[in-house]
Amino acid sequence: MNVVVIGLSHHTSPVELRERFAFAESKIPAALAQLRESGVATEGVILSTCNRVEIYAATALAPAKAFSELKEFLARACGAALAPAPEAIYTLAEPQSLRHLFKVACGLDSMVLGETEILGQLKDAYTVAHSHKHTGARLNKAFQRAFHVAKHVRTHTQIQRGSVSTASVAVELAEKIFSSLADRTVLVMGSGEMSEKVARGLVSRGVKKIVVAGRSLERAELLAEEFGGRAVRFEDWAGEFRNIDIAISSTSAPGYILDRAKLEPLMKLRKHRPLLLIDIAVPRDIDPAVNFLENVYLYNIDDLHAIADDYLKQRKEEIRVCEGIIDEKVNQLRNAERGMRIESTPQGETRHA
Amino acid sequence: MAWFTDRHFFLLAVIAYGLSSTYSVFLWRKGFRKDDRANYFLILTAFGLHTTAMVERGFSISACPVHNLFEATLFIAWTIAAAYLVVGLFHRLRFLGVFASHLLFFMGVFALMPALDPPRAATPDFSGTLISLHAALILLGIGAFGLSAVAALMFLTEEHDLKVHKLRAVFSLLPPIQRLEWVMNRLLVCGVFLFTAGLAISPFLIREKYGVWFKNDPLLDYSIFIWLFYFGLLISRWKFGQSGRRFAWSTAASFFFVMLTFWGFLLLSQVHHP
């Protein structure tokens, strides 16, 4: 029995093509039943996400034969013509199929390298197949091992460490300064997609008090309402500095709206509590010289980008380590299964399920 | 091997702590991205030698080796090393060795200074309830100041990285600076409390020995100065809101000063070396 994979992903095809082959979640059990009834596979799991559609199957057929039948099945099940897609569909037999499964579980095949969402999606796909009894000894073992490898890789490598988006980096910096974000107050100066993302990230980590200062009070009120905060007139932002801990600035002012001379007296009012300033405006809103003030930590858009890029670089450097672990685990799995086959009885019945 | 005494074993342990301390400087410069096993094993090696020294001393006097300042310092350093080795089993906390190694090395050098380990008298230096309590409280107080200084060093490292080496700050395993400042402050309060209690016993000991409540003595004067200094540090924080970098520098520098000078004043003391 060979474990094979057939599918298409963001590496091989655009979204227009992937969406034609996507399986609706509710239709997956029926599709798996059809797959097994067709005799192509004895076990099957269908993974259908926005970035990939894959069928994992345990089959008694020779790989070449299995692939051609699986392609036909895929086209039939999705009602899509295969014609535009032959080069977009990849087919893998053992050991590459197992290796691919492990890589997918670890997020090494994902669009955002090392992301963890795919592991949840893979677990869901496996649970659906398993609960409808479409998996058996081979796929159960392969998937369980894949989940185990993903956990191992996450613990022992840096592949999932850090944030690769600038908004998440800002949140991470806040967590390096403050013991807890729950009782912090955030001031958002100006509105923009990026400042909203940062504010949203901070709210997701527990921030409850948000103050929005905007030139358009209406817009500021809308944003404040979204975060359960309050809006103030833009001219009043300095008055808020006494109570805030984090300020996100993204105004369209032509020059600095906050400089050392303005901030120094405000810091005294704040009794020198730490202040995190995130300046994501271009041109910049905050004079870099304020970073020399004690208890003031200033980051601009370039700092955030540099940190996110470095995280990504670090993740890329970890790929080789992860692949080494995956190769070792694939070999272990195959050796264990080979061992079980040797232990099988002369009648061909295996002792283990 | 009679010539190879417990002091020699301890000297080897201090050399190993010193190697770890030197190696830690490089780890410090790299930031705290990953735990470092090499440093952990260096401290583990030193700990093995340190334990051997204590066991040797214990067997040679057929008692628990906490009779004089040398032995007491050995015991406190051993406790710190043991605590680190347990905490260091968790790989996310193993980086703490970078800070612990410096403290252990300093304590080791301090313990090896002459006159802290005089030839054994018929009665131990710390015999009697009051004198044992006095020594224990003062040493625990200094230990708390030491840990506060370690937290201060961590704070200064993290604070510097957050301002200058921003990438390193994000990748570092160090806790948030606000938490470090909280720990530093609490340890300082704890240290002042213990030191005050230890110092408060002194008049009773002097009266017991000399029949007066106060005797002019270099170590006693020095201890009062240290107490005033640390107390002043806390007042400056509570009253004048001193915080952040300046407070951390003061805490770290104060402990460094104590480590450098305590031994000298102890040598000059008549009360402690009659």
Task: Describe the model.
- The complex is a heterodimer of chains A (353) and B (274).
- Chain A is built from 12 helices and 10 strands.
- The two termini of chain A are 13 Å apart.
- In chain A, the strands form 2 sheets. A 6-stranded parallel beta sheet of chain A has the order 7-6-5-8-9-10. A 4-stranded antiparallel beta sheet of chain A has the order 2-3-1-4, with helices on both faces.
- Chain A has 353 residues and is α/β, with parallel strands linked by helices.
- In chain A, α6 (137-156) packs antiparallel against α12 (301-342).
- Chain A is elongated.
- Chain B has 9 helices and no strands.
- In chain B, 40% of the residues are buried.
- Chain B has helices at residues 6-30, 37-61, 69-87, 97-112, 129-163, 166-171, 177-210, 218-240, 244-268.
- Chain B is flat, with a radius of gyration of 20 Å.
- The mean pLDDT of chain B is 83.
- Chain B is mostly helical and 274 residues long.
- The chains are: A alpha/beta (353), B mainly alpha (274).
- Chains A and B meet through α7 and α12 of A and α5, α6, α7 and α9 of B.
Strands of chain B, total number = 0
What does the oligomeric state look like here?
heterodimer
Radius of gyration of chain A: 27 Å
* Uncertain regions spanning at least 5 consecutive residues of chain A: 345-353
Q: How far apart are the first and last residues' alpha carbons of chain A, in Å?
A: 13 Å
List the helices and strands and how they pair.
The complex is a heterodimer of chains A (353) and B (274).
Chain A: E1 2-9, H1 15-21, H2 28-37, E2 43-48, E3 52-59, H3 63-78, E4 90-92, H4 96-106, H5 117-131, H6 137-156, H7 166-177, E5 185-189, H8 193-204, E6 209-214, H9 217-227, E7 230-233, H10 237-240, E8 246-249, H11 260-269, E9 275-279, E10 296-300, H12 301-342
Parallel strand pairs in A: 5-6, 5-8, 6-7, 8-9, 9-10
Antiparallel strand pairs in A: 1-3, 1-4, 2-3
Helix pairs in contact in A: 4-6, 4-12, 5-6, 6-12, 7-8, 7-12
Chain B: H1 6-30, H2 37-61, H3 69-87, H4 97-112, H5 129-163, H6 166-171, H7 177-210, H8 218-240, H9 244-268
Helix pairs in contact in B: 1-2, 1-4, 2-3, 3-4, 5-7, 5-9, 7-8, 8-9
